[in-house]
């Protein structure tokens, strides 16, 4: 493992889930001719924030980190300029949910991001851990084969848009690319990289998304494909302190860049006491009656941020009253 910590995920930090989130950087731009959209993300801190909230084995942490960044890269949209000119996905108020449901030991990996880059996620089996021969996390085998479900909630839409593609490799970036190409008919290339110290005391993470726009020329596409093939490992770039602009420079080399849009994604959970109470409405009436009668109340724990809400019987009893 590397020796220079980037961000801390110490046991002390794990005990403080309410500390202020730390921003990362997402950079978006179109190529000079407008045929290619590029997004580059440094996500080290949002992944570290997710790791600090609960104990995660290295493979589970790696998979969750990739899912979080993948959700941000899709949800935030191509660029401010592209959003002004079209109705492409990524508009203000939209949210995107990625659900990797494979037959590997991780179970389901879930990430949800809004168009502002506020993202949260969880893993069914946070203790699952598989390694490659070199000791690095074997995310592909830990996820296994199954399905990737992408749900887009768009403002004003009656129903969310849902797309489902098979998990053909377990490599999350490849599976998301398959979804974007087949379900949204947007040829894309994505990269996601997470690296952490052997003792999980530090983590770095980076990702990118390159997409063809309707006016792309063959020459632009050929150059973009060559740039993607020549990209060094993203975790290596993050370890050398490369920022989002430098990654975007590599993606758009020879293509030029229009004005760039910068934003700061964060790990963010919107859970509240009221929402926790609302989840109890899914219980049978007899179960609610037993909880109230016991006089002990009920604890509800958020799957995303691990915050626990101790709900007293007096708070639960109104749920038994018909509206």
Which characteristics define this entry?
single chain; 323 residues; alpha+beta; six-stranded mixed sheet; five-stranded antiparallel sheet; 12 helices; 13 strands; 25% strand; disordered N terminus
Description:
- The chain is of the alpha+beta class and about 325 residues long.
- It is built from 12 helices and 13 strands.
- It has helices spanning about 10-15, 45-55, 60-75, 80-85, 140-145, 170-180, 220-230, 235-240, 245-250, 275-280, 285-295, 315; strands at about 25-30, 35-40, 95-100, 110-115, 120-125, 145-155, 160-165, 190-195, 205-210, 260-265, 265, 300, 310.
- The strands form 3 sheets. It has a 6-stranded mixed beta sheet, with helices on one face. It has a 5-stranded antiparallel beta sheet with strand order 8-9-2-1-10, with helices on both faces. Strands 12-13 form a two-stranded antiparallel sheet.
- Helix 2 (about 45-55) crosses helix 3.
- The radius of gyration is 21 Å and the shape is globular.
- The termini are far apart.
- The model is unreliable at about 1-20 and about 85-90 (pLDDT under 50).
């Amino acid at each position: 493992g590397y020796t220079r910590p980037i961000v801390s995920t110490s046991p002390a930090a794990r005990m403080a889930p309410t500390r202020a989130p730390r921003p990362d950087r997402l950079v978006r731009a179109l190529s000079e001719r407008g045929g290619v959209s590029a997004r580059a993300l440094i996500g080290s801190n949002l992944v570290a924030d997710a790791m600090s909230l609960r104990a995660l084995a290295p493979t589970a942490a790696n998979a969750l980190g990739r899912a979080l960044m993948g959700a941000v890269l899709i949800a935030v949209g191509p660029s401010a300029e592209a959003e002004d000119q079209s109705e492409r996905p990524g508009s203000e108020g939209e949210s995107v949910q990625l659900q990797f449901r494979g037959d590997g030991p991780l179970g389901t990996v879930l990430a949800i991001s809004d168009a502002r880059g506020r993202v949260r996620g969880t893993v069914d089996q946070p203790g699952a851990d598989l390694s490659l021969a070199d000791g690095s996390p074997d995310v592909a085998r830990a996820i296994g084969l199954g399905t990737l479900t992408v749900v887009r909630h768009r403002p004003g839409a009656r129903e969310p848009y849902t797309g489902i593609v098979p998990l053909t490799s377990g490599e999350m970036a490849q599976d998301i690319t398959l979804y974007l190409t087949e379900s949204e008919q947007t040829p894309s290339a994505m990269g996601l990289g997470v690296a952490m110290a052997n003792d999980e005391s530090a983590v770095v993470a980076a990702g990118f998304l390159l997409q063809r726009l309707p006016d792309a020329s063959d020459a632009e596409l050929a150059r973009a494909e060559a740039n993607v093939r020549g990209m060094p490992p993203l975790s290596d770039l993050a370890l050398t302190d490369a920022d989002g602009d430098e990654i975007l420079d590599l993606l758009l080399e020879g293509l030029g860049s229009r004005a760039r849009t910068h934003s700061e994604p964060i790990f963010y959970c919107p859970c509240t006491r009221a929402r926790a109470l609302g989840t109890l409405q899914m219980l049978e009436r007899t179960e609610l009656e037993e909880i109230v009668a016991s006089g002990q109340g009920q604890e509800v724990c958020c799957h995303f941020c691990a915050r626990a809400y101790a709900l007293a019987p007096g708070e639960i009893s109104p749920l038994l009253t018909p509206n």
